[in-house]
């Protein structure tokens, strides 16, 4: 997993790093929502400016963000190609059977690509600048009104933070197991499909066995230390809303209004 | 098969913001047929080092020469398979790699990956199981039903069944009881003496180093800080203490005796050597006391 950047946290002390995770979650959702309103060069330009400014505020270089896109490159290319060849309408540039490249198809492909890239980048921005546990805390806090309708918010949050906590552990373990199997002559990523599927078994079984064993250990350890489900517990990490959080929120809302306004004016 | 490292630097996740250098300018030789021990504190880069021995990791800079193959940063992942058969690598806690339905199948998994027929692999698996001291009756069981020590043996057998020329073991005795430890060290010793295997062993057990190793490599913070015979490495007691490395039990004991006025030359590494030097001195003292 040497080159795997997507969804990781990069420690830092920037403006964005210091924001309340709740604020960052809300900003991310606002941004993703607004992306779907964008439909013209100008609206996208506004969104790109906002994204670049936010990236700049994280203190992490743009190169690192772009590298985060790399694992998803094939997915992006695939969508674009599908859109180009199967989209219809407008001037026809090229046709072969029922495959055609048309004006509208090209435009649509470009729009979808932009949307994809913007959404991935803004989610990456959230995970790069926010510790997984802070994200879980933020989600719990944002969902807390649901307690009134007896939604198990605390349990969900615990599940989420345990999951987030152990993703890197599992990835490390998967890598170790892969190496151990490589040492026993397994070739990952070569041969036909059948061959490749076969190589998954020697990774997944040990990975699951270890994960289950660990889960049992953790639950025993939690019970031994008095954890009971569904009780009101106090927080070790308190979330605090600062002026910067409100300020960032205002900036995002202003940009959103601009994008929606531009769309309404059909610019 | 000789193995040599030339100016090897290794970074985990090279080229990302998470890059960490784990090996710095490593130059060393691992002589064929010898028993080489790798020691050093936890996190000093021992596991990273030995994963270069079968090109699971490739140097970020420098080169590793393994027999007639040279592994450089540019080496492609293809065609490394023959190397993996020649250099068998037993990972730290190898029981975490077991996955087959039965112990026998798991041991036979490796050989089959190298194109050995099912029957041949089966035969090989039975032989190696016997060699590592796994009872026939366990072979048809699920590997997950074995005890920790038995799982460890099964996993080691899975690598031994490849019939490698070089056997590399990453702390194979960690977490085992004394009996299990002795069995595994006995097996390793047997493989070197009878089957002429080159052995590379990572260990925290200095007694094993003193008893078995011909050659010792000392790692600290990603650097190779010493290499030599056990006698050379363990002679510098002050330096070992500085680097938080333990002494073999016999050597530590001899050191305490020196404070009490005994003399040792050379410093004993094993219980036998200690006894050989101690007995005459005690006899003399006895005579003096009764004088
Ligand atoms: N997959 C990895 N990604 C990033 N860093 C790693 C990885 N594996 C090891 N390291 C780092 O490389 C350094 C050397 O690790 P290594 O596992 O080689 O140590 P070791 O000497 O085998 O320790 P131990 O005695 O605990 O097994 C450590 O600082 C470790 O944190
Ligand atoms: Mg190690």
UniProtKB/TrEMBL annotation, chain A:
Membrane topology: Multi-pass membrane protein
Keyword field: ATP-binding, Cell membrane, Membrane, Nucleotide-binding, Transmembrane, Transmembrane helix, Transport
CDD domains reported in the protein's UniProt record: EcfT
One Gene Ontology cellular component: plasma membrane
Transmembrane domains' residue ranges: 21-38, 73-94, 106-128, 149-167, 246-265
InterPro entries per UniProt: ABC/ECF_trnsptr_transmembrane (IPR003339), EcfT (IPR024919)
Localisation: Cell membrane
Keyword flag Ligase: no
Top-level taxon of origin: Bacteria
GO function term, MF aspect, one: ATP binding
Major place of residence: membrane
Assembly and oligomerization: Forms a stable energy-coupling factor (ECF) transporter complex composed of 2 membrane-embedded substrate-binding proteins (S component), 2 ATP-binding proteins (A component) and 2 transmembrane proteins (T component).
Annotated family: Belongs to the energy-coupling factor EcfT family.
The protein's role, per its UniProt record: Transmembrane (T) component of an energy-coupling factor (ECF) ABC-transporter complex. Unlike classic ABC transporters this ECF transporter provides the energy necessary to transport a number of different substrates.
UniProt name for this protein: Energy-coupling factor transporter transmembrane protein EcfT
Protein species of origin: Secundilactobacillus collinoides (Lactobacillus collinoides)
From TrEMBL, chain B:
Subcellular location(s) per record: Cell membrane
Keywords, sorted A to Z: ATP-binding, Cell membrane, Membrane, Nucleotide-binding, Translocase, Transport
Source organism superkingdom: Bacteria
Any Pfam family: ABC_tran
The keyword Nucleotide-binding belongs to this UniProt entry's keyword annotation: yes
Membrane topology of the entry: Peripheral membrane protein
Principal location class: membrane
Signal peptide per UniProt: none
Residue ranges of every copy of the ABC transporter domain listed in the record: 3-246
Broadest EC class assigned to this enzyme: translocase
GO molecular function terms attached to this record: ATP binding; ATP hydrolysis activity; ATPase-coupled transmembrane transporter activity
EC assignment: 7.-.-.-
SUPFAM superfamilies in the cross-refs: P-loop containing nucleoside triphosphate hydrolases
CDD domains the record matches: ABC_cobalt_CbiO_domain1
GO cellular component: ATP-binding cassette (ABC) transporter complex
NCBIfam families given in the database record: ECF_ATPase_2, PRK13634.1
Assembly: Forms a stable energy-coupling factor (ECF) transporter complex composed of 2 membrane-embedded substrate-binding proteins (S component), 2 ATP-binding proteins (A component) and 2 transmembrane proteins (T component).
Chain's role: ATP-binding (A) component of a common energy-coupling factor (ECF) ABC-transporter complex.
Stated family: Belongs to the ABC transporter superfamily. Energy-coupling factor EcfA family.
Name of this protein: Energy-coupling factor transporter ATP-binding protein EcfA2
